[in-house]
Amino acid sequence: MRLTFCTLLSLVTTTTWAQFCFSPEKPQLGQMVSFTYSPQTTPLAKDSTLEGRFVRYSTPNMMQISRPTTVTLVRQGADYVGEIYIPTKDVTGTMLFFRNSKQPQRTDLNNGQFYVIPVCDASGRIVPHATGGQASVFTRSHFLNETNTRFDPNWVVTLYNHELAQNPDLQSLYWSDRLAALIKQKKPGYGPKVKAEIESYLASRPNPTLTELTDAIRLYDSMGDYQKVNALRERQKVAEPAGSLVQKDRAIAIRAQTDWTRQKAAYEAFVHEFPTSSHLSDLAVIMTNGYFKNNDIPGLVTFVEQQPTTQTDVLVLNTIAFQLADERRSLPEAEQLIKHAITVLKVHPKPRNASANWEAEKQNRQRQLMNTYARVLEQQGKYTEAYTAYQEVINPDDAEASDPRTNERYFLCALRANHAADALPMTEAAIQVGKATPGLKTALHDWYAKQPGNTPAKADTYLANLEADIKADQRDEIQEKLINEPAPAFTLTDLLGRTISSSAFKGKVIVLDFWATWCGPCIASFPAMQQAQNRFQSDPNVRFLFVNTREGGPVQRVHNFMEKHPYNFVVPLDSQQKVSNAYKVQGIPTKVVIGPNGRVRYRQIGFSGDPEATVNELALVVEMLKEGK
């Protein structure tokens, strides 16, 4: 007959828990433990669907075994019984709590101390770590996350103290965890006490290990004693001259070096001294960008091709190669770089910053690289090869996820490679879902008009039919954005000294763009605004005014800006912010459109960063207002 042992407290004393009993009385490794749980006096007294959750624990460095597991409970009258197996090694105890299986937030945590089954040795003595391991469950595992509670630092300190009183030889394993618990406990005078114990412990170790120094640093850091932290870090550097701290300092110095020649020399020395450093990947990116910024493109190619694949950032190479292609410089080298990136990606392990679905992200990166490869080939006049590369990027079945500028380059490349008809499905799909640039629409229109039997008028109809649905949807969306407010009259002077008065624009659509030279989004939106203005440049009933406001500096700054940039804007000066205030401008850039009836019909703050979307929406607003919408 098996005896039932009901004398368990988390400190393994002789206090009785009536609600939890287990047998055998002194469980050992490799045994099955049966237990009885009586919930009548617990928070689960009125619950009927119960289950247990438990973790096994061991020494502090073995807490990875603390994976929460469910134990099935079988009801016997008013009680519940279950069984837990104790493995044959690496376990010093088990901790449990009970909960309603259908309402997991309803729990019995035994007042935050959980229910514990300690492991005993052959003589019946509680094994070392049976108590300290409980504290480690609280401080080194995620078991409490399931219960949405925090551990009681007073209880954890008690557990550590009991373990060390029974097994003082375990001091080196528990000292820092115990002191961390004392810090969380925050009893009066804890700071000096903890610091004294840190110094005492380190003094007792003639040659503290790097782990011990790191633990001491962590403790001092949590108390805000940064002088001690820095002193111990210097001590770590002396103890480990090739260690992580020294490497980190050297890496930071390389990053901060502004002299290119010295930066290269420092990097080469670092690679020689620390060939397996974890900082090499980040430093390789720094050097890659360094070669590019210093316009040493041949040197960049040589450097990149010498790097291990694990230290090669293909997205950085992609960015550089694309910029070189866009600027039409070093095109053969740009081709080498992007080809190398494509080769590396095929064997590249999952990067630290990759998403959980690496295979899907890898395919996305492959498309990015192929897009750049196609651009590089195209800029070199290799249109047939570029068209083939673009076909790996383009997906007519997913036009909504496509990039308008890529769509334009694809069709223009197809034209030059005599594959325009083959590229037609994607081009039409892009226009139908609003993913086409004005340049793409123009190119398609002109090509279509030149086909046998076609005319410019037929091309107009063809393009209008392609855009009909998306324009209808966009018009519906814009209709909901339209407002109807009075348009305050204004008179301003522009940069050329001309008087600009709203009264001169009666019956016209007026687009006001409120901006300042210091406003990044304002300046970023100007290329799109230039496109929008160009679209209506021959229309006498549409006027664009770029009202400079909130400048906060001399007018000459505005003159200088406009002289340096090729925008043919009319720039009225709202130096007192009277007009911007009258038009309820809360931030810049703000676009305001006044209808032919002299009423404010549209107001948009900010810039989305999408030039095509900005141009299309603004153009539709103007067209709708001209139609009297």
TrEMBL record:
<dbReference type="GO" id="GO:0016491">
    <property type="term" value="F:oxidoreductase activity"/>
</dbReference>
<feature type="signal peptide">
    <location>
        <begin position="1"/>
        <end position="18"/>
    </location>
</feature>
<dbReference type="InterPro" id="IPR013766">
    <property type="entry name" value="Thioredoxin_domain"/>
</dbReference>
<feature type="domain" description="Thioredoxin">
    <location>
        <begin position="481"/>
        <end position="627"/>
    </location>
</feature>
<dbReference type="Pfam" id="PF08534">
    <property type="entry name" value="Redoxin"/>
</dbReference>
<dbReference type="InterPro" id="IPR036249">
    <property type="entry name" value="Thioredoxin-like_sf"/>
</dbReference>
<dbReference type="InterPro" id="IPR013740">
    <property type="entry name" value="Redoxin"/>
</dbReference>
<dbReference type="InterPro" id="IPR011990">
    <property type="entry name" value="TPR-like_helical_dom_sf"/>
</dbReference>
<keyword id="KW-0732">Signal</keyword>
<dbReference type="InterPro" id="IPR050553">
    <property type="entry name" value="Thioredoxin_ResA/DsbE_sf"/>
</dbReference>
<protein>
    <submittedName>
        <fullName>TlpA family protein disulfide reductase</fullName>
    </submittedName>
</protein>
<dbReference type="GO" id="GO:0006950">
    <property type="term" value="P:response to stress"/>
</dbReference>
